[in-house]
Amino acid sequence: MQTTSAVREQPNTQQGHPPGLYLLFFTEMWERFSYYGMRGLLMLYLSKTALEGGLGINAASASLIYGYFTGFVYLTPIIGGWLADKYIGQRRAILIGGLTMAVGQFFLFMQPSLSTQGVFFGLPWPTLLGLLLLILGNGFFKPNISTIVGKLYEQGDPRRDAAFTIFYMGINTGAFLAPLVCGYFAEDLFATKTVVNGIEQVASYGFRYGFLAAGIGMLLGQLAFNLLGTRFLGDTGMYPEGRNEDKTITKAPLTKEETDRMAVIFIITLFVVFFWAGFEQAGSSLTLYTDKFIDREVGGFLIPTSWFQSVNAGFIVLLGAPVAALWVYLGRRGRDLSIPVKMGLGMVLLGVGFLFMVGAVMQRGGDIADQTIKASIWWLLATYFFHTVGELCLSPVGLSMVSRLSPAALTSMLMGVWFLAPFVAQIAGGYIAAYVEELGALKVFGLIAGFVILAGLILIAIAKKLFHMMHGRG
Predict the structure, then answer these.
(1) Are 186 and 271 in contact, with CB atoms under 8 Å apart?
(2) E strand segments, 134-265
(3) pLDDT tens digits, residue range 422-454?
(4) Statement: the pTM of the whole predicted model exceeds 0.90
């Protein structure tokens, strides 16, 4: 079976990380630049009027489109992971996925005409096709690059959790830069502005140029990955784990320990649905609330709404290394928290973050429609801070968990299963965002906080049982 490579033969006693980790960091950084650059503009692009350069879709329908798009982005990794495990290997899947997503961004760049409107929820066909290609390409890319990170380390290597946190910093470096660059293109450089009551406002947005920048970023990551992959990764991820050298399928029955570990993946996946349903409000209801009701003016400068998509990523870049060092520190002293406890703690922290949004609504006097009454920007920044700390306790640890607990021949597919939680959560989150205007932000933000905190406490309560089912890999 093709399970060894030049990279994996390196001794595991070294204190540093293999150079392949940093190539994967760079590749993922540009892929996330592409995705988050587009995502940071999507709700605004859907909901702004045609005169403003948008599609003029009402807020409820735009929230549903956003929810279904971001949801299916997390469903297709199951298919892409399975194909990589069985037939094409992770490296080829990453190439296919990256190029497909770049083409998708270029379709979004196409200027829609009136003759293309109304295909689906009012979407013009270039936009619809672009979103579909992004969904498909992400299915090939997302589970497989995370799987390769895990392949760089043998089971039991104490550097594994830290490696996934470093890799996660790559994700968020791209996510931090993307809204700033793409948002600057769309809301400033290529935007048409006007002055109303002495305040400069955007009359028409240059969304298409933000999508163009996102597509170029995707190509940069693919160029680096394919030119440097052989040098820094050896043959890691080149061949499907489910086949041996003479291309015959290797079938071995799963052991009791393996089935228990797989069960843990499924159980925790169910819990983190609550986390992602709340967390991903950042791109929908929080974006719309920020655009209307948060005081974005600082020193006479009106901060573009899309720039707030960088706040979470910026916090992760700042906090990622200290959190990675904390896990290593605790692990070396035998005091590390178990995976379920870390993830339950992350959910509780997310809920605490939403309590600050409740505070923002209350500062305005409740759910009032007057957009001249603004809440302090500090409520929003505090929300993103707690969301970030919660995410660092949950998401990179979850990626590491899947690579630890999965049977070798099923790792990429089970990485796809892990992304089922965001799939369900994104769609649910779209419906939640669609009802903000009907139910009121105060009630919605409060309910999210309560449900997520409760789910986190339950996960912590059953952590010992789940740890036992991990059979030494928790």
Answers:
(1) no
(2) 192-196, 199-204
(3) 888 888 888 888 877 678 889 989 999 999 999
(4) no
Residue 373 CA to residue 355 CA, distance in Å, equals 20
Closest CA to 457 of 271, 304, 211, 194: 271
DSSP conformation letters of 214-275: HHHHHHHHHHHHHHHHHHHHTTTTTS-TTB-TT-PBP--PPPHHHHHHHHHHHHHHHHHHHH
Flag the least confident range among 13-17, 277-281, 325-329, 371-375: 13-17
Cα–Cα distance measured from residue 287 to residue 34, given in angstroms and rounded to the nearest whole number: 19
Residue written as tokens 């296919």?
96
Q: What is each CA distance from 108 to 101, 126, 454, 460, in whole angstroms?
A: 11, 6, 40, 43
Q: What is the DSSP letter of 336?
A: P
Looking only at the bridges linking them, the beta strands covering 199-204 and 192-196 are antiparallel
Q: Are 277 and 428 in contact (CB under 8 A)?
A: yes
Contacts of 469 (CB under 8 A, 6+ apart): 260, 261, 263, 264
The kind and range of the H/E element at 302 are strand 301-302
Backbone angles phi, psi at 388, to 5 degrees: -65, -50
* Residues belonging to the chain: 474
Euclidean distance between CA atoms 403 and 151, whole angstroms: 8
